Amino acid sequence: MSNPVICIGAALVDELYHASHPILLATTNEGTVHRSAGGVSRNIAHQLALLGVPVQLISVFGSDGEGDWLKTICEYTGIQLDAAITTSALTGKYTGILNQDGSLFTAFLTNPPLHLITPEHLEKNKALLETASCILADANINVETTQWLLSFSKESRIPFIIEPVSVPPAEKYRSADLEGLYLITPNEDELPVLCSPSATTIQEQVDELLGRGVQNIWLHRGAEGSSFFSKDKSLTLAAPDAIVKDCTGAGDGSVSGFILAKYLNKSHEESLRIAHTLSAEILQVNGAIATHLNQEKLLQLVSKYY
After folding, report:
1. pLDDT tens-digit profile of 215-254?
2. By C-alpha distance, which of 2, 4, 6, 3 is closest to 161?
3. What is the pLDDT of residues 123-164, one digit of tens each?
4. Whole-structure pTM value
5. Which of these CATH numbers, 3.10.560.10, 3.40.1190.20, 2.40.50.180, 3.40.50.1460, describes 41-90+115-305?
């Protein structure tokens, strides 16, 4: 087997409530519900597995029915769980409330006990980490654990990616040592909280992160597309046209597409096109995963959008 991508972070049960009409506050709203396996790192691992990339997921599962259900889905999909943790705590849950147009109105997160993913746990599984082609961690894990991974990445020369997830977990990294980080993938809400208050423009924020030693910054800009920054160049790519059915997981999908492209030794430009194509496909289905795609179909679809 080729060297796996190792994803570290949340595995959740996603429950998405989609309003049938414009949402009214403080009263009952009609809608539909869709239940699926979720969690940023688990979503990325799931999509990569469907795209033919060998993948390991280091996450925490409750010893309850929902934890068993999530592990079964992972194993069925082809995600390896050699260093996953099972605990007596409840499995985490993400509950999203979607507007009629599929955009997010609000969401609730019942956190899984990700504090159990410690540097000590990773040290015990160092032999597995040394086999990785790339390591991704979502910002739900402890900063201390992320710092251990960054040190490991620099020693092993294995690229390390941080996905900020959302504003609250991203804020933890405002003063973190990011020297040598291969890539961080914020959106326009997350980028400012990764930086000092004195950095007030996107360019100032990007310059600050580059000055702190981040090699690449990939800024997700929603319907405006995305921009990719490094010390020697910057790229911008418009988002493809897509009829949005469900926005959940589109960001996770784009990260999966980028990692796949890098796994295939594609350029940054090609990687962005593949990432946007996968994100566009996810926007048009319920849930966070494009289960209708394999690697060949995804690569063929790039020419449809670009």
Report:
1. 999 999 988 999 999 999 999 999 998 888 777 678 899 9
2. 6
3. 999 999 999 999 999 999 999 999 999 999 999 999 999 999
4. 0.91
5. 3.40.1190.20
